[in-house]
Write a structure and sequence with these properties.
Number of helices: 1
Order of helices and strands: EEH
Shape: globular
Structural class: alpha+beta
Number of strands: 2
Radius of gyration: 12 Å
Strand content: 15-25%
Helix content: 25-40%
Strand order of the largest sheet: 1-2
Oligomer: single chain
Largest sheet: 2 strands, antiparallel
Length: 54
């Protein structure tokens, strides 16, 4: 996922992986509550939590 709303900035901000019998989702997004007003941030966070909880 790329932070496309930050002009001229492309960086990895989230990843997922299986770890043993579990799963790990990491996101560097959401340092401030206002970050979740950006639909893409909220959506990738929800999807990552859902993926890791299954």
């Amino acid at each position: 996922y790329e932070a496309k709303w930050i002009e001229n900035c492309v960086m990895p901000v989230a990843w997922k992986r299986n770890w043993g019998k579990g799963k790990v989702f990491y996101s560097s997004l959401g340092h401030k509550m206002e970050d979740f007003d950006i639909p893409e941030v909220l959506e990738i966070t929800k999807r990552g939590i859902l993926w890791a909880s299954r």
